[in-house]
Amino acid sequence: MSKARLVSALVAGLCILAAAAWVVTGAFPLAAAPQVVTDGPGVSVDVGGAALLHRNPVNYPAGARAQGVSGMVVVQVSLDSTGSVNDMHVVSGPDELRRAALESIVQWHFTRDSAGKTRQVSVNFQAPPATQVVEGVLGEVPAQPRTVRNITVAGVPDAVRNDLMAAVPVHAGDSMPLSEVSRKVTTAVKQFDEHLAVATIPSTTDDGVDIRISAPGSSPGVVGGVPGGATRGVLGGILSSRPDAEASVIPPPPPPQTNPDGTQVQRIRVGGNVQAAKMVQQAAPVYPPLAAQARISGVVKLNVVISTTGAVKEISVVSGHPLLVQSALDAVRLWVYMPTLLNGVPVEVATQVDVPFGPEQ
User: Fold this and answer.
1) pLDDT surpassing 70 at residue 255
2) CA angle 226, 194, 102 (to 5 degrees)
3) N or C: at which end does the chain have fewer Cβ atoms within 10 angstroms?
4) Which is nearest to 182 in space by CA: 98, 42, 63?
């Protein structure tokens, strides 16, 4: 075979191979493996056949699980032009389970073929029956009774505390299943004052259980809202003379906010990365000269509440070097986000913001 004929045969073979590859690719298009998401035990999700780029898992609220609250939460979701969740509307489902579903769904991202459309998502919560191992056999048996060791109340006047304790049908020394303890106490406390929080804390070493009831703004077992009674003066100056010291403040939970008509403002929690995508105005932090001179760098972590208008409403410091904290606060106060909608109505969003500082700044 001559050299010319050899080259021609080689070129023809390559053309045939390319054509075959094109045909195979068209017949069997490449597809990314579906995202594997592990939801909380007892939780199953149905997106009605819609495809997602990614989604967060849905967790079963501990309080609802302990009380045996089950059911399906159906949410109608409106998507924007990119497939991100723009609005949500709860069609049906137990009140105790709705927040867990909404706080996960708001961070989902559907594929572009769903962009601009409305989808229905169903989240089924099924609390498992109480089980325990008996002589090596797993079976459904009555839950192990727990003995109430003590009941503490924080953040309410003594006179109100006495009335509250009289309304609670559970007392120290009572013995009953944990779910029953939680249900009875929570029901009585919420009927007394819906703003009070209830924590049922089982012991890990015996069958005892502690009950803690607290008013908004209080934190049982914490001095002044800071573990161990730590000083809360981060915003005013430096807490430590060591240049590598970090300020760490954990504020007490804020009191519930109300609308002008007296209804409570709804608030949901959203991951920092998801909320960052909704930012419309961002002020860059100023690198403090003293920090730059001392070659101090790092990340200031802040808990932020975004109002219904998208403006930053509340800020509290989680951690960060004292020389960097004030600059981070001054910048984040100026940030503005797109409002987050629930049932077509803007809601407040609680999220975490990381503000990095480095020599290049």
Assistant:
1) no
2) 80
3) N
4) 63
